[in-house]
Every structure is written in structure tokens, then in C-alpha cells.
Amino acid sequence: MNAVWIVDDDRSIRWVLEKALARENIAFRSFSSASEALGVLDANNGTPQVLISDIHMPGESGLVLLQRAKERYPELPVIIMTAYSDLDSAVAAFQGGAFEYLPKPFDVDQAIDLLRRALEESMHQAGADEEVASLPEILGHAASMQDVFRAIGRLSQSHATVLINGESGTGKELVARALHRHSPRREGPFIAINTAAIPRDLLESELFGHERGAFTGAAAQRRGRFEQAEGGTLFLDEIGDMPSELQTRLLRVLSDGHFYRVGGHTPVKANVRVITATHQNLEQRVREGLFREDLFHRLNVIRLRLPPLRERREDIPVLVRHFLLRSAQELGVDAKRLTEAALRHLQLNEFPGNVRQLENLCHWLTVMAPGQMVDVADLPSDMRDAVALSGGSGASSAQDWLAALNDEADRLLHAVPGEVFDQLSRAFEKALILRALATTGGRRVEAAQILGIGRNTITRKIQELGIDAVKGDD
Prior knowledge:
Elements: E1 4-7, H1 11-23, E2 28-31, H2 34-42, E3 50-54, H3 62-72, E4 78-82, H4 87-95, E5 100-103, H5 108-125, H6 143-154, E6 162-165, H7 172-181, E7 190-194, H8 200-208, H9 225-228, E8 233-237, H10 244-256, E9 258-259, E10 268-269, E11 273-278, H11 282-287, H12 293-299, E12 302-305, H13 316-331, E13 337-338, H14 340-347, H15 354-368, E14 373-374, H16 381-388, H17 395-415, H18 420-439, H19 444-451, H20 455-464
Parallel strand pairs: 1-2, 1-3, 3-4, 4-5, 6-11, 6-12, 7-8, 8-11, 13-14
Antiparallel strand pairs: 9-10
Helix pairs in contact: 1-5, 2-3, 4-6, 13-15, 18-19, 19-20
């Protein structure tokens, strides 16, 4: 038996995994296509303990291989790899029964750690498909976004209440819609309401409806959002701003499963899944007496945190391409492209409006930029000025850092020839890891995520570099 089967049409990926597995003394067998692996499975010429496969390959896809392999060996751990780091790939993989989802490019140590876990799972056990949309609703290569994709995939068969935390413009409603679209309630309606945008005296009627004559102007019975969402999902945005009296009514609905229209006496069954979102710290609101603690616990069954764009700057290029293409399609024009300098400039911006601000910028560029190639000079003046006024966090800071690095390199080249690369690399890695650990309060898993490396990698580096332990939760 070959412990691990590798299936990928990219020879370089197969080579990297083969070398890493050989170094770990783990048996493997490689295939260049899903059809080739399926042929061996169908002919009973071998059985893997773990299958790791690309998702997008010529011929049969990795999802077909996943489905066929799970039909034959339901307990087989299957890891799905893909360079298309989008929501649909993650959800399709998890709905097909994948053990885990591994986005490319990946950290080799992280991949080996994942394969070891899958092998352990396989030994302990010893005894749907969904194509990627041409314009997926949510994109992201960053580790924090991959966590969101995985969570949506794992929640795809759940009816659980979900609380989404994130700054304005991070895409909270997009995630709520994705949770609905990939849920058992997908055939039902998705009804969204921003509780902060509706006047307090109208919000109760908006949510629960009213009977004729319930108040001045109520000339007819009206169904509220809870009834409109029957059999589907009700998304309550900015739940942290909900008035206290309505918090009490919402708690009763979640507890009892029914409600009364304003002015009504007949209970109405609430057959909805509730998803809420807020940009606020609800725990702090509870401490301040502004949000009911019992309601908070009712809503906080599953919590998803959406990272601000400044925490996932590596996603800016792919988001820019996506938004420019979509704007071009909407306007019926050719999509514009950004120069590398313009992309780097955008990555230095803070984007307080997050993804929504970036989307609006791309629409502006599609309409206003003079040429097909967009350079720094074509960006809006406020976007150019934001980097210049960012307190040294932009280009000037980068130039100062590079100048200091050049000075140190010159000194070491004369002082310790033959050891320069090793010394500078270690110093750079140590400073980077210490900064990340300080940012996360010593939490290694979070530090690894924001650095874009694996958990095992950061643990090994901490030991190799002699970094003193930093207090944290792991």
C-alpha cells in the first residue's frame, strides 16, 4: 500500500510533495491526472491511506476524483488543493467530504503537517459537486480568508445561528449570502435588513409586521421580515445598534420560535435561520449595559471574524483584477490593468473602507483612467496622498528600511564574508516573528496566520532562532 497518493497535472507540485514525503519516510505514489488515479482505483491495483489532489486539471476534476474515491472508500481522507482560492472551491470540497482544503501556493511544512494528520485519521479509522464560478462572490488567498472559507464549508449543512464580526466594508453581507446559498435553506428567500438604518419607531413593524389598525396609518395587514424570510435566512446587519426593547422581542423569537405582529394576538411561527452581523465589540456593549447578555449568547453560537483589508494586503492584486473585470463587464468596455507600481502603491494604503472602498476605486478607474494601463499617476489624488501622509508607513519608510539593510549588508560583506546570507536571513526572520508575536499577544497560531506560514514552521523557527517564549494562549 502506498500511504499517500499525489494527483496533480503540475509536475513541480508533484516533485515538491514527493521530495518532502521522501524526506519524512512516507510512502507515496504520483499521478498526473484524476483519470489515471481513477483507473488504478477501478482496477484495484492499489489503495491509498490518504489522497491529495488538485481540483482543476485537464479531463476529470479533483472533485470528480473526490466523489468517486469517497464512493469506494467512504473513510478515505482526501485533501483538495487548488490555486483558485475562492469560496466555491472550499465549499465544494467540504460538501464532497474532503478532509481538508489546501490553497496554493502552500507552505511545504504546513502541507506535510496536514498529510500527517490525515494519515493519523486514516489509521484511526482503519476500521454536490460545485464548479468554480467565473466571478466567485468572495476572493482571498490570505490565511484569514481561508479560515472564513473553511468555516462556510463546514457550516454548509448546518442551521446554526451565526454572528459575523467585521469592520464596515469587509463583506459581511456577502458572507451571510454565501452561508445561505450553501445551506439546506438555499431554496428559501434571503432577507436582509440593516437595523441601524431604520428609525426606531418603524423597526418593530419592519421586523415583525403589523395588523390593520395597529397604529395610525396601518391601513392593511403587513408581513414583516421574519415572515418574508419563511423557510430561508434572515440577515440582521448592525445588530449591535438594535434598541433594547427590540432586543427583548428578538430574544423571545429565538427562544420560543414564534412572534406576534404589532397589534396582533395570534402567534406566527418563525421558520427562519438568523444570521447577524456587527462592526462593534458586542462583549463591550454587554459590559456597558447596551446589549442584552442573554441575547448575545443566543446569537453567538458560531462566530466568524472578517479581517479588514489592511490585514490581507496580499489579496489586493487579485481583488483589483476581479473588480476591474466586473466593472468592465457592467459597462461593456475592455478591462483595465494596473502597473506593478500602481498595485504596490495600493498595497501601501490603509483602506479604511476596506473591500467596498477598493471596489468603488476600481469602478472609478474603469470610468476615469485615461488609458488601458493604470499607473500611480492615474490613481485618485486622495489615494496617492494617503500613502505620502501615512506617517512613514509607505514608500519612504520602505526606502529607509532598504537603506539600512544595504548598510548592514556592506558591513557584513567585509566583516564576515561567507556568512552574510545566513546572518541577515536569521536576523530578518527573528525580527519578523517577534513582531508578529507581539501583534498577537504571543499567540503562535495567529502569528503564523498573519505571516502566511504554517504552525509547525513558526514553532520550528522559534526554536532555531532562539526566540524567548512570549506569553500567549498557545
